[in-house]
Amino acid sequence: MIKKPSINLTLLLLIFLNSLIIAHAQTRAQVFPRLDPDPKALEFYNLTCKDTGLSWEELAVISLWASGDISASGLGRIRSAVQTLNSSPELPADCRERAEYILGFMHKNILRSYSLYQTRVDTIFTNGRYNCVSSAILYIILCKSAGVPTSGVMTKEHAFAMVHSDDFDIDVETTNPYGFDPGNKKEFFDSVGNLTGISYVPAQNYRDRQTISQIELVSLILNNRIADHERQNRFGDAVPVAVDMAALLTGNTLAVNDESAWPGPLFENPFSSMMDRIFNYGAMLLKAGREEDCLRWAAAASPMYPDTDRWQEFTLAAVNNNITKLSRANKITEARIFLENNKTLLTETDYAQFDTSLVYSELLSSANKIRTAQEGSMTVDAVEQAMLSGRIEQKRASDLIIFAVQKTAAALSAAPARDWRAAALYIENALSRFGEKGDLPVNELEQSLQTYRSNIAADYHNRFAAAWNRRNYDEAERILNEGLAEFPNDRQLLSNQETVRRQRGM
Q: pTM (2 decimals)?
């Protein structure tokens, strides 16, 4: 199947060992997937450019490398199979018959059971399991060793082989022992000529089939390994395989950054596939909340594999996620340091947007910490300066100023002082400073001012009542007159005045 794609000597020793553990952890945290192509990939690409084509042994070596096996034992097993095949007295001389014999030989002596995802050639020889890709490659290796010309064929989800001669081209379904020339009935006879059975493998209706070279067929091993890694969420493991695939097919991982230059439509541009794997790994880091690693990954990979728009989008997402995470944790200072450290990675517009967001968060944090009039005034001044410099828009600045003024007034009037007058005076000054300019809506502050003034009037009443109840009528009347001078229309104080008049008999 074709798939798309973590002091004393003892103390000195402990310190030393601890430093090694920390260094190892730091190193491990910074290790990223390999981005340079395996030199073997480039070496094999050069082999495919030979005028004489690949020998069966060269194709075997490449297919084992693509399978992830660089041991000598894998090649030894293939050599043994080749020797057994070619020394068989039953190997026909006729090309067509020989090709059909090789299919049967392979299923009888090597292949054991079909496995949808078993795409590696080396694994065939350890447990006999195979799929369409691995069996087609092994078949082509055996055919090349026996002088039978072949090529690979692929569809959207399948691969098989095709045998060539001067007179015919024959499809070979390598996953089936009777898959030679599918669609034709095969009769089987015993040694004396008696018919013993008939086999029929239906011809597949392969629309959009594409004949591919032997090295392109081998590259499907890499393609399927990439799909296996990503299917198991091992996105880091998929990256070097994709890099090697691009190098094997092009000789240069940057040579085919052009969809139109790559034969299709079925065979995906290996450069595009490689870039997708690189960004998929980055997306995994992003999803895991490893934004710092995301930026290090971009710094490591983008110079080698440039794609301005995608890297900018990826970097922007990483910066945004980390700033949002730090801001939500109220780590505004850390968020600001992070933004400034990564300023060069952002466009002016993106930086300005993050700066505005952080300025607002910084000012809001300052407003929430207000405990004195001085702190309140410093915060209000900072908000006004941010607004005048254009770092935050007027609406958000207005909201912050109102909040900071009310927060300061609340701090001034808090227990034990209960200084309602200081709170009211602070709001009056703010209204005088901003209200006349029309820089902020005054309704909320005017309502707050009215509340504090009502509290001052209520304080006059409470003081009057306390003195009156002590029968200190002169002191009570003095307090009342002081209150009425400031609040001549206050209903409670006017009611107190009536009480005094009745007491005086007036």
A: 0.76
